[in-house]
UniProtKB/TrEMBL annotation:
InterPro entries: HTH_67. It comes from the Bacteria. This is SalK. It comes from Actinomadura chokoriensis.
Length: 279
């Protein structure tokens, strides 16, 4: 399986997963279960498979968020809603959102969910805490919820590998955000808002990257662009491996495209995930 396929399949599984952050059904489910505000809902819902972990664990695994933003939500989130109660509602809510945005999702899910589950079970969990915790959840009986859970596990598999590569290059979470902005993958203003970094800390990280020759005057240098491209390429290569169990991966990709296009209407563009529109 090649890196190009991994990039293409990410562009369709990410929108299907990401309804959990943006769709009204999912935001309401977080509120109903007891989580307070958007960020407690985000950290609590995404982190629930890990159990009632510390803020430090969320900081390490989610990567790129300001520690203060996390610590305003965790561990308080677990006082308002147990991980078990969150897990009972998050997949159901995502399935409702997917059914609303793409009425044909049931037919897609019946075929695609088992195939994606094969990929999940073939993936290496070593060093991938978010992936492993999602992989180990029971597979839902509802095919649409099962589809969402599989896309969630696989996007976390990709993300865990990406974080390992960033840290291997000596980049902090903040520096990774600055570099992504400097190459034009995300907007700096959006990252300030979504990841919680104040301007003075952002500027200090930019100065640190400038000392490494990666950024100059807010723009990535040739060396910075080359580093970012290497990281993205290697991320794709690592993410591609488990898809090798599929007999016809391209058919799975094509099956998911219409649903992903519909789900993308729930997502802002540009977005902090660096996700482009489904082509």
């Amino acid at each position: 399986m090649d890196a190009e396929f991994a990039r293409d399949i990410w562009k369709v599984i990410e929108p299907l997963h990401a309804v959990t952050y943006f769709s009204e059904e999912c935001l309401t489910a977080n509120k109903v279960v007891g989580l307070k505000g958007f960020w407690m809902g985000y950290f609590g819902s995404r982190g629930a498979p890990l159990g009632a972990v510390s803020a430090g664990t969320i900081e390490a695994t989610f990567f790129g968020f300001h520690p203060a933003r996390i610590r305003r939500a965790v561990p308080d989130a677990w006082r308002f809603a147990s991980p078990e109660s969150i897990l009972r509602v998050r997949g159901e809510a995502a399935a409702r959102a997917l059914r609303r945005v793409f009425p044909g999702i049931e037919d897609v899910a019946v075929t695609a969910a088992p195939r994606l589950h094969e990929v999940v079970m073939a993936a290496d969990a070593a060093g991938r805490a978010l992936f492993a915790s999602n992989r180990d959840l029971d597979v839902p009986e509802d095919p649409v919820e099962a589809l969402w859970q599989a896309t969630t596990a696989l996007r976390e598999h990709r993300g865990d590998g990406h974080v390992a590569l960033l840290t291997g290059e000596g980049l902090s979470g903040l520096e990774a955000n600055v570099l992504a902005s400097a190459v034009g993958a995300v907007r700096a203003e959006q990252m300030h808002t979504s990841r919680g970094w104040p301007p003075e800390e952002w500027d200090a990280a930019a100065d640190a990257l400038a000392e490494r020759g990666l950024v100059a005057r807010g723009e990535a240098t040739e060396e910075g662009r080359a580093l970012k491209a290497r990281i993205e390429r290697r991320t794709d290569e690592l993410a591609a491996v488990p898809y090798g169990v599929l007999d016809d991966p391209e058919a799975l990709h094509e099956l998911l495209v219409p649903a992903a296009r519909a789900a993308a209407d729930e997502i802002p563009f540009p977005n902090p995930m660096g996700l482009p529109r489904v082509g």
